[in-house]
Amino acid sequence: MQTSDIIGYIAAVLTTTAFVPQAWMTWRCKRAEGVSLSMYVIFIGGILMWLTYGILLSAWPVIIANIVTLMLASFILAMKLIYK
Amino acid sequence: MQTSDIIGYIAAVLTTTAFVPQAWMTWRCKRAEGVSLSMYVIFIGGILMWLTYGILLSAWPVIIANIVTLMLASFILAMKLIYK
């Protein structure tokens, strides 16, 4: 595996797991007023496009990372819609 | 340009611009209590890795998208540290 691949995988793990503390915080506090609705709507749109990109290129790390991010971002969006 | 490239560019634009409404909301409200500090610390670490990945591969769309995201995420992190 090349150095760039390793850095790419670390990058994917970090930008995916970053959403875990936000999801946890929103769930725990049952409040989401500080979270931007527009951000998560646009972001989920972007993640769906990255997922399509990964599928078209059969790039499994891109597919897996974006499925996980999609789940986390959708969870935060749902909390935002429920708790306002 | 291939279809996958076009989808990749759209994905990059969406996941980058998604942070604009969050940055604007945090700035306007002068409050960041609903934003997770851990999320932005981990996320910025990931973006720096994506930037390194882009530089290693001389992939300009990756470099440009991540410089913009880095600026927006750093701005949100700074607001979080200032306004708590």
UniProtKB/TrEMBL annotation, chains A, B:
<keyword id="KW-0812">Transmembrane</keyword>
<dbReference type="GO" id="GO:0051119">
    <property type="term" value="F:sugar transmembrane transporter activity"/>
</dbReference>
<feature type="transmembrane region" description="Helical">
    <location>
        <begin position="62"/>
        <end position="83"/>
    </location>
</feature>
<feature type="transmembrane region" description="Helical">
    <location>
        <begin position="6"/>
        <end position="25"/>
    </location>
</feature>
<feature type="transmembrane region" description="Helical">
    <location>
        <begin position="37"/>
        <end position="56"/>
    </location>
</feature>
<dbReference type="GO" id="GO:0016020">
    <property type="term" value="C:membrane"/>
</dbReference>
<dbReference type="InterPro" id="IPR047662">
    <property type="entry name" value="SemiSWEET"/>
</dbReference>
<keyword id="KW-0472">Membrane</keyword>
<dbReference type="InterPro" id="IPR006603">
    <property type="entry name" value="PQ-loop_rpt"/>
</dbReference>
<dbReference type="Pfam" id="PF04193">
    <property type="entry name" value="PQ-loop"/>
</dbReference>
<keyword id="KW-1133">Transmembrane helix</keyword>
<protein>
    <submittedName>
        <fullName>SemiSWEET transporter</fullName>
    </submittedName>
</protein>
